[in-house]
Each structure stands twice: as C-alpha cells, then as structure tokens.
Amino acid sequence: MTAHEQMLIAANLLVVVKGINEFSSAEIFSLLQCAGSDYPITTIHPEMLRCCINCPREHETPHDYFEKIDRDKYRLVKKLS
Prior knowledge:
The protein is α+β, with helices and mostly antiparallel strands. The chain contains three helices and two strands; from the N terminus they run H-H-H-E-E. It has one domain (3-76). Helix 1 (3-18) crosses helix 2 (25-34). The longest helix has 16 residues, at 3-18.
C-alpha cells in the first residue's frame, strides 16, 4: 500500500475516533508508526502536501484528500465508504 493510501486510511480513522474533522501531520505519522508503517516521516510530510487541495504542488500527481485549515491542521475532504 502506498504512503498516500495509508495516510487516507489513518485520517479517516482519526476523524472517527476524535469525533471532529481535524488532525495534524504528527497525528497521522504517530498512527502510521503505531500501525507498523515502513514510511519515514521524511516521506509523510511531503505526501501531506501532495494530498492537500490548497497546498502548492509542482509537477506531482495530486491526491485531493485533505484541506489545510491552519498551520499543521488539516480537514478530511475524501471519506472512505
């Protein structure tokens, strides 16, 4: 499974568990680490930007999963069914 797919699953889980549609990259990284993900934080941070609809992206394939709402605060825009 790719990093962005793991991040989408983690974000959906965080939103359900917390009961609010807001999370940080640190929460995503912590959850992925606890779940045994092999992706390092140096991969996760750039992927957060790639997955964010309102972050600058150059020459990258976007994955419109999140919306940045504040500094290191994101909102989920793609919920899993």
